[in-house]
Amino acid sequence: MQKSLPTRCPSCDHRLQVKRLRCDQCETEVEGLYPLPVLAALSAEDQAFICDFVKASGSLKDMAALMKVSYPTVRNRLDDVIAKLQSPNPSPKP
Amino acid sequence: MTPTALPSQRVGEFLFYPFVRVAGLQSLLLGLAGIALAGWLGFIQGLHFDGVLDVHVGAHLPWWMSLGEGLINWLSLAALLFIAGKIVSRTRFRAVDLFGTQALARWPMLLVSLMCLAPGFHRYSEALVKALLKMTDKPGRVVLPPINADTWVFGVVMLGMLSCTVWMVALMWQSFAHSCNARGGKAVAAFMVSLLLAEVLSKVLIVQMLISTHP
Known about the structure:
Shape of chain A: elongated
Order of helices and strands of chain A: EEHHH
Structural class of chain A: alpha+beta
Largest sheet of chain B: 2 strands, antiparallel
Distance between the termini of chain A: 22 Å
Order of helices and strands of chain B: HHEEHHHHHH
Strand order of the largest sheet of chain B: 1-2
Largest interface: A-B, 9 and 15 residues
Largest sheet of chain A: 2 strands, antiparallel
Oligomer: heterodimer
Radius of gyration of chain B: 19 Å
Number of strands of chain B: 2
Strand content of chain B: under 5%
Helix content of chain A: 25-40%
Radius of gyration of chain A: 16 Å
Helix content of chain B: over 70%
Number of strands of chain A: 2
Number of helices of chain B: 8
């Protein structure tokens, strides 16, 4: 089973932060309070979209061909992701 | 939509959200082909698309005028929606997507011109026009054509025309909303104002086209 990274508080739905990190090699643990990278706060679908977009060298035309949709469909999807990234407390919902 | 989408979802997408998959040059070529074919069918049966939302039976005109009506209707609305999109949209959008999908949004009019080929439709239309002209000559007495098979054909075609017009407006809205990523009340208002202005503009341009060739 592939576990997904929880990014939202199940109680208040606010964005979660990282409190503890651990090295599996030497078992060193670091404790603190680190904000999640902004991309990690996006949904898995949005992250996959961004990965594909970067792999396509940022070409919306290539993305449209890859996703088998029209150019404005990709453009609108990108606009949605940009809006989530610009939001101070983005929702991971696709 | 995923590849596992239900057939009904695929049909729904094809009918009402085709621009999710088709836009740009592809939609422009398909749309222009539809406008040309609808214009030619209109030419052979004296059918006129004399306004963005209008279909009327009338005199036979040269073929290029029938084509001109379709092009005027398409360009009037697409040009006004392009301006509206620049005002209400917060994203960059391509003109070819808006103009292409607007051309494709007119394809229900091709169905209308095919429906009007139904035997009896033009016969009943002519009888109805004659009856109405008589009524104008002698007010107070309405003698409608007798009810026969043509009446039912006429009724079914009129119902089909109305449905296709509503469907075309839905596609025109989808084209605008999708191509310009325009949402919300401002986008709806901009679309409605553009549609009304385009109806007036197209009428004026079509009348000018007729006057210029028949002074």
